[in-house]
Amino acid sequence: MRDKVILGVTLSIVTLLTLVIYGFIDGQRGVTEVATQREDAIVSGKHLYAQYCIQCHGPQGEGCIGPALSRTIWRPEIGGEKNEDYDEAAHDVIYNTIARGKPSNQPGIVMPPWSVNENGPLNDEQMEAITAFIQYGDWNKVIEDAASATDLAADLPSYPGFTDKARIGQVKELLLAKGCLNCHALGKGGGKIGADLTDVGSRRTAEWLRKWIKDPKSVPPNERGPNLWLVGPTPTVPAPAGVPVNLTPAPTAQVMPMNTTYMPTVPMTEEELNLMVEYLSKARTSTR
């Protein structure tokens, strides 16, 4: 009888230990599967970000036409450690903004809704992947997935106040020589790493463009991207029929996050800078 009791107790202990060990292993497997799924989402999200988001938010999420996405408060972890400053609402804010878009009062600028439910190109899984990348991904690796510039041989557009073909040709040579079109689109050709410049004259003055081109990193956050809103009409060069005159950019009261720009300082002579600024300040096609 005693042997049976001992045997029963022993079997019970063995069974209990087996369940504990199995539970631990199963739990670890669950953690591993979640980590693997997240890594897969981050890789997919990086590719999608480079395809759809880089031009407005920058190759390092630093902010360009849109605000910075590489925000510390949006990262649940920093260096593998829990981020005590993490905003618990971050995931929903990011995901919902991707899905529904965001308006802007800058001519020709609007963040469109990307969800298929809003007639956009992205499904729920893809939007979750971009969100995962923004929250957990390595911003220094986005440029790996950026598309190469296309149609670099295409002619630049002419604008009211800048129609001379010879001078437009000089601008094209300058843009190619300085590598500007590797990142920026202008008309039918160029890259999609930086902002599209085809309509930049509707959003920025010659004075602002001169300061930016000379030293992009010296421009303060409240004078960049969505922080420079347009207020009040100010006539400059003649505008095409149906296109409003240029508007004077002014800082907005509520400054959106902007990090150090990815754009480098491009060395130019004063003559080259004058030509570039004159052309870009008249690049205006918006009908808003």
Q: Can you give keywords for this protein?
A:
mainly alpha, 288 residues, Cytochrome Bc1 Complex, Chain D, domain 2, 39% helix, single chain, two-stranded antiparallel sheet
Would you kindly provide a written description of the structure presented here, covering whatever features stand out?
It is a single chain. The chain has 288 residues and is mostly helical. It folds into 2 domains: 144 residues, Cytochrome c-like domain (Cytochrome Bc1 Complex, Chain D, domain 2); 117 residues, Cytochrome Bc1 Complex, Chain D, domain 2, CATH 1.10.760. 39% of the residues lie in helices and 7% in strands. The chain contains 7 helices and 6 strands, in the order ααββαααββαββα. A two-stranded antiparallel ribbon has the order 1-2. Strands 3-4 form a two-stranded antiparallel ribbon. Strands 5-6 form a two-stranded antiparallel ribbon. Helix 6 crosses helix 7. The protein is elongated. The protein starts with a helix and ends in a 7-residue tail after the last helix. About 2% of the residues have low confidence.
What's the quick description here?
This protein has 288 residues and is mainly alpha-helical. 39% of the residues lie in helices and 7% in strands. The chain has helices at residues 2-52, 54-57, 90-100, 124-136, 165-177, 206-214, 270-281; strands spanning 77-78, 81-82, 185-186, 189-190, 228-233, 247-251.
